[in-house]
Fold this protein.
Amino acid sequence: MPVVTPKTRGFICTTSHPTGCAANVKAQIEYVKSQPALENVAKKVLVIGASTGYGLASRIVPAFGGGASTIGVFFEKPGSEKRSGSAGWYNSIAFEQEAKEAGLYAKSFNGDAFSHELKAQVIETIKQDLGQVDMIVYSLASPRRTDPDSGETFNSVLKPLGETYTNKTLNTDKAEVTEVSIDPASQEEVEHTVKVMGGEDWSYWISALDEAGVLAEGFKTVAYSYIGPEMTWPIYTNGTIGTAKKDLDKTVAALDAKYGAQTAVVSVNKALVTQASSAIPVVPLYISLLYKVMKEKGNHEGCIEQIHRLFATYYGDASAASDEDGRVRIDDWEMAPDIQAEVDALWNKVNTENLRDLSDFDGYQAEFLRLFGFGIDGINYEAEVDTDIAVPSIEG
Ligand code: NAI
């Protein structure tokens, strides 16, 4: 059995710690259990992208806050005797074990959510075990997608539209604030990013579930988006990824037209350290400043707090905060004018020398490592650990 230590390169960590990941999952479960039980929550929930970040939280909240049966879909790497697998693999094993202990139904599928085969497998299991699902959470973040019909593979890019975008950014390896210039995307890159991160696969999932007769009457479905402050709009909201996110709104309109108003919704979530967000230029510096301001104000949330609030407001109260486009806004605390004014002032001042004073870069780094199970109290990182683990309820 190996001793597992972090091996990071930029926004990637190639190792993860099984016991540390399990501790992360346990802490999220404990948070949910410490909150009042959720009312009117879906009882049979399918989460697509369920192993890390917002999707993992979206599985934990209905399961441990409302006793829901859950099916999770993700694309993760199992470990071997000598090498650790991916964090999402260990998170999912821990989730399955905790759910089993709590007497909750849980099953998972490790494979390509974009494929027809995986959808068919999930549907078969729903038919056999649950009959129907009453909520579908779509929380995929992927750099590529192979179209299940044509076999063509599309890659998503993180680029501005129209003109070159230049702004401050953070080199997280060197703790340096530098300037980055990103050339605009080609039309083809925009279209490919929409293919990967837009609403097409979400609608394919709902159609496949519907055709198989496994959607419960009055089912709900949610996908996640981000808007953020103006300084990041060229690379996010007005860039390739934002164009893909706008495509989700079209899917919402089509699903609502077919299944009834308020069936589908986009939830705009807060910027948080996850494997997906650390890959976006400029955003990690913004997140480091945002964490500083929100922690000082006492209203900082992580994925589990965000998603708990989503379920508590969206399901528990019909007047849940939604904007003029009908999207649920759990980024409301992030986007509050006082928070944004402070972040903006810090943004103008921050440089390599004052990075650790003006921003919560230390918090950013610690949270990044925690995503992979490192830096958690009570875990002996010098000890050998079993990396070759699995549970029967995860297929693939
Ligand atoms: P993440 O990287 O933590 O999670 C991505 C999930 O997708 C994982 O479970 C992964 O296994 C799964 N996945 C990727 N490719 C797959 C495939 N081909 N088949 C099956 N599963 C696959 O990402 P994060 O940040 O939780 O993002 C989830 C959603 O939330 C995304 O739509 C993202 O845009 C959105 N969001 C994220 C924010 C952030 O700051 N992190 C803010 C607002 C929205």
Observations:
- The pocket of NAI is lined by residues 49-55, 73-76, 88, 112-114, 139-142, 224-226, 269, 271-272, 274-277 (CB under 6 Å).
- Residues 2 and 384 are 5 Å apart (CA to CA).
- The chain has a mean pLDDT of 95.
